[in-house]
Amino acid sequence: MIALVLFYGDVKWSKQLKTDKPMGIDIVLDATKRDEKAVYHAAKTIQRLLHDEGYDYEQVMINVNIFEGEDIKDKHTGYVKYHLSFDKETDLQVDDVERIE
Predict the structure, then answer these.
(1) What are phi and psi of 31, to 5 degrees?
(2) pLDDT for residue 16
(3) H/E run at residue 89
(4) For residue 33, how many other CB atoms are within 10 A of its CB?
(5) Hey, which residues does 23 pair with through a beta bridge?
(6) What is the pTM of this model?
(7) CB 47: neighbour CB atoms within 10 A?
(8) How far apart are CA 42 and CA 28, in angstroms?
(9) Which phi and psi angles does 30 have, rounded to 5°?
(10) How far, in Å, are 6, 12, 13, 65 from residue 9 at the CA level?
(11) Tens of pLDDT, residue by residue, the chain (101 residues)
(12) Angle at 75 between CA 2 and CA 47, to 5 degrees
């Protein structure tokens, strides 16, 4: 699993960090050996952990990318194979995973 979080300046991270509104979370996962069901289970785990740990978020967007050639070096690019998003109230289902052709 790959997660990239960017903070600007000298922001110190903490769950208690005060923000103007709930955060949006963008996550990139590696599509190697993952199908729709595996992506669904990963998303459910992420959603559960965010809830259990009390994170204040508005929406989570997950792209599951295929990394080939030069993309393998940095794991931040590649093309999207699956996508899904959810908020705190979403009851995730396997059908929520969108396969990108």
Answers:
(1) -80, -5
(2) 73
(3) none
(4) 6
(5) 57
(6) 0.78
(7) 19
(8) 11
(9) -85, 130
(10) 10, 9, 12, 29
(11) 334 455 555 666 677 777 788 888 988 888 888 999 999 999 999 999 999 988 888 999 999 998 877 656 565 667 899 999 999 999 999 999 999 98
(12) 20
Q: Are 84 and 96 in contact (CB under 8 A)?
A: yes
Which residue shows structure tokens 């979370």? 25
Tokens 């699993």 — which residue?
Answer: 1
- Token duo for residue 87: 């908020």
Distance CA 97, CA 83 (A): 6
The residue assigned the tokens 């929520």 is 96
Percent helix, strand, coil in the chain, to 5, is: 25, 30, 50
Which residues are registered as beta bridge partners of 53?
A: none
Residue with tokens 């393998």: 72
